[in-house]
TrEMBL record:
It comes from Strongylocentrotus purpuratus (Purple sea urchin). InterPro entries: AP5Z1 (IPR028222), AP5Z1_ARM (IPR055450), ARM-type_fold (IPR016024), TPR_AP5Z1_C (IPR056856), TPR_AP5Z1_N (IPR056857). Residues 197-206 have a biased composition (Polar residues). Residues 13-263 form the AP-5 complex subunit zeta-1 N-terminal TPR domain. It holds the Pfam family TPR_AP5Z1. This is AP-5 complex subunit zeta-1. It comes from the Eukaryota. Residues 460-808 form the AP-5 complex subunit zeta-1 C-terminal TPR domain. Residues 332-448 form the AP-5 complex subunit zeta-1 ARM repeats domain. Residues 197-218 are annotated as: Disordered.
Length: 814
């Protein structure tokens, strides 16, 4: 047995293949061609074809397989290669290479030159032609051939299964290639395969003598099959009709989705599942189905629906039985999910079946759903889709509470459950947003899925996140997003604790786990982890000792899962602010300002994450004040406290600079008439004191290593000058302050270029403030000037003269 390949080896191999040069790629082509035409040993051929498949799948270069190699690959797939022994892996690899290479007209010409010489090669040929799609000239003829294979009684069952799968693929991707008559022929055949499979065990294909025993197949619980065969019927060996029965049920839902329309009102409209449109009959086909010639069609469809309903209900009934083997639990769950999802599609074809099917679905919900979350999701989908059609009123709140509360918590680390949950949310996003409180109430639980699988579901949550934000949850949602790396780290601890509980011997290979798990187990730490890993929303604020929790789990900051989560969050926070600023009212935006100021200092201890998040928060703050300048008045207490302490600069100087710039830009009566001299003076007092402290620390610093940048000091000085230009009583104090700062920095050890910039800025501002009217015009220009409306007098001649002069000068300049 070959040794398993770890993730690092796979990544290294992919990077290597993506970096292949043109010469190296040609060498791979030549090696594969030589193996195919020279009759090389099968193992050598397999090795070369694997290299070829990997190369054309990964290369960044233009893929153009040489014609001689393409011809050799086609010969193998068509079964006409006399040099190579009949070795299945070679045919499979050649088929895979051609599927990856297509669609291309070059390949279509080669494939059209021959025919499959043996039915054994049909499984390799069909996927290649289907991958070609419309580029293949044989696709339309192939549909007729596949239909003939499917409808021929006693034909090779493997070919019939392959043909049915190919017909489903064709109907899904190229619906117009199938006529209504062909669809009804297939539908009738599906009905027969579902209902006419034998309940007797097939004889062993390896036995030389025909067995005289005629044993019945058994059900999942060991009883003899009494009614009819289903895919939950167990047998030592399966006959062709039984294999076709299993394959039919597996293909049934996809076939119905691809080929049927809703019959409501006789109109042709797309069949919808969870609010998403799917292919319909459409055009002339629909007209024919609705015409007098559609009588047989409706009868055939009705028969298929009846057989499918009977089959699915039988499967659901069998799923209530206890299996003989514990391994069959997964089989039961998969069959139950498929049966319920098939019934959901069938009910869209005939809504009168809903009341008939409801008791069975309800019983499955009561007895089976709590064991299997995937089943619970499928049943919840049925209830959401048909709650209005049910005679009894069903409220999904209880099911939702159980699923997104306890169940998701228990199965958080199950990739299948989380994938199905996210798919369910995406499928029903509009309905869940408008008709339930699921997205708001269980937002912490929903976001936990992203915290554990950030790379897998990031693109999905870009679609889900805006629907989770509301006026009631916006504040908490911001905390949840910012704390998501902490949530990931906490989930890692719970996963380790669970693994150690189930398998204590893991401590021998992972001794470091015990320390981190002990942090989780301590009773005094439980309230913090319970908060971070809560399932329901309703907490508008965050915990007071969040920084202490960060320190407890900071050893997980370098964990790959935590790092990936920290890289994904900034894009979601940007989306959050885009959504909020587009839809929120002034009161909500005002409530977010203190949160942004607070959380700029409280972020999970990953340096790159902190820097990026402060950049995002700073940009959001700028946009908020640009849209709502009155925030400088309503949030003046929070802003003054923020700019009045050195601790708010340390480690987040750029963010602090944004806040200082905002105060200088929007603290003016032109933006809000409530902006009085008292408010301006309050901002000035806080900022002046801090500027003196910063200046002293910069002056006393060692050469080349100031604790704060000259850029920050320049922004603070400019903001003070702006405030003074709007409150002229402050001008003498600002001139004195800037003069003192200049004198201090003359003696400081900062770089000469920085010192020159700072002194130049101070001199410019002092000279401006000595002319108050000029300072007001320059430092606090009116909105008309900023927006370009400089000439408001329509009777003035200067604008006309400027325009005329411009028109005269421009042609000469050109």
């Amino acid at each position: 047995m070959a040794a398993p390949i770890d993730g690092k080896s796979v990544r290294f191999l992919l990077i290597k293949e993506r970096g292949l040069s043109k010469k190296e790629l040609e060498a791979v082509y030549n090696e594969a061609h030589q193996c195919l035409v020279s009759g090389a040993p099968p193992i050598q051929c397999v090795h070369s074809l694997r290299k070829l498949l990997l190369a054309i799948s990964c290369t960044k270069l233009h893929r153009e397989i040489p014609k001689n190699l393409l011809r050799a690959l086609c010969i193998v797939v068509l079964g006409t290669n006399t040099n190579l022994p009949q070795f299945e892996p070679i045919s499979l690899l050649c088929s895979a290479v051609l599927q990856e290479y297509g669609p291309t007209p070059q390949l279509d010409v080669e494939l059209g030159a021959g025919q499959a010489s043996d039915l054994r090669h049909v499984p390799y040929l069909l996927p290649v032609i289907l991958a070609q799609g419309r580029c293949s000239k044989r696709l339309e003829k192939l549909v007729s051939q596949m239909l003939k294979w499917v409808s021929t009684v006693g034909f090779n069952s493997e070919i019939q299964c392959r043909a049915l799968s190919s017909l489903v693929t064709t109907a899904t991707q190229h619906r117009d290639l199938l006529s209504d008559e062909q669809i009804y022929v297939v539908g009738s055949q599906l009905s027969d395969w579902l209902s006419n499979a034998s309940t007797k065990q097939a004889t062993s294909p390896h036995s030389k003598q025909k067995s005289s025993k005629n044993e019945s197949v058994t059900e999942i619980d060991g009883r003899e099959c009494q009614d009819f065969f289903t895919l939950l019927s167990l047998s030592s060996y399966y006959g062709q009709d039984q294999l076709l029965n299993i394959h039919t049920f597996s293909s049934l839902r996809a076939w119905l989705l691809a080929t049927t329309t809703s019959p409501a009102g006789g109109a042709s409209r797309p069949l919808e599942v969870g609010g998403r449109g799917l292919p319909s009959l459409g055009g002339e086909g629909a007209s024919r189905a609705a015409s007098s010639g559609g009588k047989f069609a409706n009868k055939a469809r009705k028969a298929m629906i009846e057989k499918a309903c009977e089959y699915c209900l039988r499967v659901i009934d069998l799923c209530h039985r206890r299996p003989l083997k514990i391994q069959d639990q997964d089989l039961i769950q998969a069959c139950l999910v498929e049966a319920i999802e098939t019934l959901i599609v069938i009910c869209r074809l005939d809504t009168s079946l809903v009341s008939k099917l409801y008791p069975s679905i309800k019983q499955a919900h009561t007895n089976l759903a709590k064991k299997w979350p995937r089943v619970q999701l499928a049943i919840l989908q049925f209830f959401l889709d048909y709650s209005e059609a049910l005679h009894v009123v069903f409220k999904p709140e209880e099911t939702i509470a159980d699923l997104f509360g306890e169940v998701i918590t228990r199965y958080m680390h199950d990739d299948t459950v989380t994938f199905d949950t996210v798919t369910f949310l995406l499928t029903n996003l509009q309905q869940l947003c408008l008709e339930t409180e699921l997205l708001e109430k269980y937002s912490p639980s929903i976001l936990r899925i992203l915290a554990w699988n950030p790379r897998t579901f990031l693109s999905d949550y870009v679609e889900i996140l805006p629907a989770m934000i509301s006026t009631d949850t916006a504040k908490e949602m911001l905390h949840l997003l910012l704390d998501l790396p902490c949530t990931t780290a906490s989930l890692i601890l719970t996963h380790r604790e669970k693994q150690l509980r189930q398998n204590p011997s893991l401590l021998e290979s992972q001794p470091s786990w015990l320390t981190s798990v002990n942090i989780l187990r301590k009773p005094e730490h439980q309230p913090w982890f319970n908060y971070i890993l809560r399932s329901q929303s309703g907490k508008g604020d965050t915990i007071t000792k969040l920084n202490f929790l960060y320190k407890l789990i900071e050893n997980l900051a370098s964990h790959p899962r935590v790092l990936i989560c920290s890289q994904a969050i900034p894009s979601l926070v940007r989306l959050y602010f885009k959504t909020v600023l587009q839809h929120a009212d002034y009161d909500l935006v005002s409530q977010l300002v203190p949160i942004i100021l607070e959380r700029s200092a409280i972020l999970f201890p990953i340096t790159t994450y902190q820097d990026e998040m402060r950049r995002v928060l700073g940009d959001a703050l700028l946009e908020m004040f640009s849209l709502h300048p009155s925030l400088v008045v309503d949030q003046r207490t929070e802003l003054q406290d923020f700019i009045g302490a050195l601790r708010h600069i340390d480690g987040k100087e750029d963010f602090f600079s944004h806040v200082v710039w905002i105060i200088g830009q929007y603290t003016a009566s032109m933006h809000d008439k409530r902006c009085t001299m008292e408010i301006i003076s309050g901002y000035y007092e806080s900022l002046e004191t801090l500027l003196y402290e910063v200046s002293v620390l910069v002056q006393s610093s060692t050469e080349g290593k100031p604790p704060y940048s000259i850029r920050l000091m320049a922004i603070m000085m400019t903001t003070l000058a702006k405030l003074a230009s709007r409150c002229q009583d402050l001008i003498p104090r600002v001139i004195l302050c800037l003069t003192k700062i200049s004198q201090q920095q003359t003696k400081s050890r900062v770089g000469q270029d920085d010192k020159k910039v700072l002194l130049s800025r101070a001199t410019e501002l002092v000279n401006l403030l000595k002319l108050p009217d000029v300072a007001s015009a320059i430092l606090s220009p009116s909105t008309d000037i900023r927006e370009g409306r400089w000439h408001s007098d329509v009777n003035a001649s200067i604008p006309l003269l400027l325009k005329a002069a411009s028109q005269l000068i421009q042609p000469q300049a050109s």
